[in-house]
Amino acid sequence: MNTLARLTPAGHAAPSLDTLRDFVEHEADLLDNRRFDDWLDLYSDDAVYWVPASQDQADWISHVSLYYDEKHTMKTRVARLKHPMIHCQDPPSTTVRVLSNFGLETADGDRFRVRSKFIMLEDRPGADRRVYGGRYLHTLRLDGTHMKIVQKCVRLTNCDQSFPQLTQPF
Fold this sequence. Notes:
Layout: H1 3-7, H2 17-32, H3 36-41, E1 43-52, E2 65-70, H4 71-82, E3 94-108, E4 111-123, E5 130-143, E6 146-156
Parallel strand pairs: 1-6
Antiparallel strand pairs: 1-2, 3-4, 4-5, 5-6
């Protein structure tokens, strides 16, 4: 019996690593296609989206972060991204995220921590291409037949550098 099956509550089928990878890749596709409402729907009501501002940052309480959004703040961010007069996205960015090196960090009951690496390209006419890279750590929760993101931690390789306006979620 595999670890996922052993740690999944009775009556629930444990998702395979392929299923978890597909879910994380689906999240990236939604962002690349500017389907921000659908992206937001992937997050649980108690979700946290976190991008640390230093390599060794252990939490979002003791140190300022590049992003620390709870679900309410994420809704505000999405509303701004969709607003027709958002000056920092006129014209809108085109993004591509490439994900790889998926692995299962932990599985505990209905929660799964999936790690991966990413590169994100952001292009906008009249602006220099932006390149971001780093590691994702998704904490996913299986709720019946639905998967939700409980926490997404984005550890940028260059998180301690200065950035122009960050508007696109990673």
